[in-house]
Design a protein that fits this description.
Strand content: 25-35%
Radius of gyration: 20 Å
Structural class: alpha/beta
Largest sheet: 7 strands, mixed
Number of domains: 2
CATH architecture of the largest domain: 3-Layer(aba) Sandwich
Strand order of the largest sheet: 10-9-8-11-12-13-14
CATH topology of the largest domain: Rossmann fold
């Protein structure tokens, strides 16, 4: 075991305090005492109510909806800890928002994933911990260490416990092929790909499946479920091609717009997600299995604090 640098403290904003509390409990410590509120005009007000001088600070805050509120809250928390003379500041961002724009795929558009990386770095973080980035190359937007964790061990363990026969892992679009292939290998299943074309910002068209799902049990896997259009259209297509039980799984259940309605109408047996972000909405959740990332995040924090290798957690 490596030598500890300084006292470990974990703080959280308002984005997902229950996850932060669970992580702190796994580490055997209490969540740090900080007031994160608002001034009467809506500006965010932050104060650390305990000494952090020289401490190893971990700030847990997914930048999930409301994205702008949670992102600015994180930036102000970083500034607060920096000005309070924290020894090291690590931002633990289970869901990294603004990640869809990671390159200029057309003229006159921003690269928001890089902009957010600049904001976090300039605010004063020394390290970033995140889970299932929308695009792995976002790690290269930072000139500080980035620990890019994967939820696949957590989600795969659940599906292995279900002993699902005749299993095929289906990628709902070309962009998720690498993730689907990794799950297929872990679950000893087949692999198929849905041919998807985007016809608008919130509209997709699915035409065909590359691979065989007839008579198979299917797991549709993606990193994010936002409006749920892509993954539910893929579920309908798989069912029309003869699939038996269909499961959908994702790391980040953003579930905005009409997502809940689409999911409830889709021909699926269950949806499996992690708690990287808090579930929103009041729809029936009886068929939803939420898996905790608290153990994975706590172990990564412990290893970083103890100067131990984190690379084994990347798999």
């Amino acid at each position: 075991m490596g030598k500890k640098n300084f006292d470990l403290k974990v703080f959280a904003g308002n984005a997902h305090r229950s996850l932060a509390t669970d992580v702190a409990a796994k580490l055997g410590i209490k969540l740090g005492n900080a007031a994160v509120g608002h001034f009467p005009d809506g500006e965010i007000d932050v104060k650390a109510n305990e000494d952090v001088r020289g401490c190893d600070i971990f700030l847990i805050q997914p930048t999930c909806p409301p994205v702008n509120e949670n992102l600015v809250e994180l930036l102000i928390m970083i500034d607060c800890m920096k000005r309070a003379s924290a020894g090291r500041i690590t931002a633990v961002v289970p869901y990294y928002g603004y990640a869809r724009k990671d390159r200029k795929d057309e003229g006159r558009v921003p690269i928001t994933a890089k902009l957010v990386a600049n904001l976090l770095t300039e605010a004063g973080i020394d390290r970033l911990v995140t889970v299932d980035l929308h695009a792995s190359q976002i790690q290269g937007f930072f000139d500080i260490p980035v620990d890019h964790l994967f939820a696949s061990p957590v989600i795969s363990e659940f599906f292995l416990s279900q002993n699902i026969p005749d299993l095929v892992v289906v990628s709902p679009d070309v962009g998720s092929i690498k993730m689907a292939r990794a799950y297929a290998k872990r679950l000893n299943g087949g692999l198929a790909i849905v041919d998807k074309r985007r016809t608008g910002p919130e509209a997709v068209e699915v035409n065909a499946i590359i691979g065989d799902v007839d008579g198979k049990n299917v797991i549709l896997i993606d990193d994010i479920i936002s409006t749920a259009g892509t993954i539910t259209n893929a579920a309908h297509l798989c069912k029309s091609k003869g699939a038996k039980d269909i499961y959908i799984a994702a790391t980040h259940p953003i579930l905005c717009g009409q997502a809940w309605d689409k999911i409830q109408k889709a021909p699926i047996k269950a949806m499996v997600v992690t708690d990287s972000v808090p579930l929103k909405g009041n729809a029936d959740r009886s068929a939803i299995q939420v898996l905790s990332l608290a153990g994975l995040l706590a172990e990564s924090i412990r290893r970083i604090h103890d100067n131990e290798s984190v690379s084994s957690l990347f798999d």
